Amino acid sequence: MLMTTPTKIRATAKDGNTEVRVLMQHDMENGRRKDEAGNLIPAWYIIEIKAQHNGRTVLEGQFGTSVSRNPYLIFRFKGGAAGDKVALSWVDNRGETRSDEVDIS
Amino acid sequence: MREHDRNTINLERRKTLIAGGGVCLLGIFAALGLAPGLAHAGVSRAAFEAMNLSDALDALGALAPEDSTSIKLTAPDIAENGAVVPVTVECLLSGTEQISILIDKNPTMLAASFAIPQDTEGYLSTKIKMAQTATVIALVKANGKFYRASREVKVTAGGC
User: Fold this and answer.
1) Fewer Cβ within 10 Å of end Cβ, chain B: N or C?
2) Which residues in chain A have Cβ-Cβ distances shorter than 8 Å to B43?
3) Following CA atoms B88, B115, B150, B153 in sequence, which dihedral angle do they give, to the nearest 10 degrees?
4) What is each CA distance from B137 to B28, B47, B126, in whole angstroms?
5) CB–CB of B103 and A66 under 8 A?
6) Which tens digit of pLDDT belongs to each residue from B1-18?
7) Does the residue B160 lie in any domain?
8) Which residues of B fall within a CB distance of 8 Å from A78?
């Protein structure tokens, strides 16, 4: 099994809403690039993400190959208080998964 | 538990759809405006394979999206690095349930599609790759209808 790198998540509650900033660590290869030897680098990219607030889904996303390397996201949901949990999970086209969680600050 | 069950069921449905003729079948459903059951779980993966805009819109079930000034699409006029183009979609339409981002001249049109639950704002910011100067389209589904806003981004060095 390959190693995955933790997703950086920052969740901040303000005026009854929570803003979440996410930086996933993934190469997001689109399958059209070539390596130095001229061989195609196989497509390898995140296909689905899900964000949860205390276990409740607050965002679901699907990606194609046009999302930049190390996908970055900002979104906002109603509610959320300091100390609540925000989790972000992803799955890529090889079936690799990663899930990370932070406290809302 | 319920969440898990739902995912399992949707996975089964996707498998069935793929087995049942994949793209073609989905195309028919999309044309009829049905796209059964995919609205909540997300969009068909076929939408991500579409190599022209009308196929992508078809696969998303968005046949004739209406231009809307209630969607604010922010992107740079000129992107010096096509590998990292910041895009923000802010949607003031009530009942926003889905936000998709498309690039009309990339090898595949659809970059990302997000399902927006009721308590999540119609706001998303991300970074996309652009192969060349193209039109970025924010496609929003609100109360079952599709709306869009678009914006041209000049790319000086493509990065796909």
Assistant:
1) N
2) 62
3) 50
4) 24, 14, 13
5) yes
6) 454 555 544 545 554 444
7) no
8) 119-121
ipTM: 0.95
Alpha carbon of residue A64 to chain centroid? 13
Q: Which of residues 62-81 of A touch B (CB under 8 A)?
A: 62-69, 71-79
**pTM of the predicted protein model:** 0.83
B26 within a domain of the structure (yes/no): yes
Instruction: Dump pLDDT digits (tens) for A84-93.
Output: 999 999 999 9
CATH of the domain at B98: 2.60.40.2470
| Domain hosting residue A60, numbered range | 5-103
CA nearest to B57, candidates B17, B6, B100: B100
Domain count for chain B, please give it: 1
Contacts of B130 in chain A (CB under 8 A): 66
